[in-house]
Amino acid sequence: MAKRDNAVDLVGLLSVEGQDLAATWVREVSGSLKGRVGTAELDRELRELYDALLDALRQGATDVHADQMSEVRALLTELSRNRARQGFSPSETAVSIFALKRVLEPLLQEGSADDVRAYLELGRVLDGLGLFTIESYSQTREEIITAQAEQLLELSTPVVRLWDGVIAVPLVGTLDSARTQVVMEKLLQALVDTGSEQAIIDITGVPAVDTQVAQHLLKTIVAARLMGAECTVSGISPQIAQTIVALGIEFDDIVTKASLADALKLALRRSGVDLVAHEGAQR
Amino acid sequence: MSERIPILRIGETLLVSVQFDLEDQMVLNLQEDLAQQIVDKSARGVIIDISALEIVDSFVGRMLAAVAAISRVLDARTVVVGMRPAVAITLVELGLSLGGVDTALDLEKGLAKLRQSTDSALR
Question: What start-end ranges are recorded for coiled-coil regions in this protein (chain A) (predicted)?
Answer without folding.
Answer: none
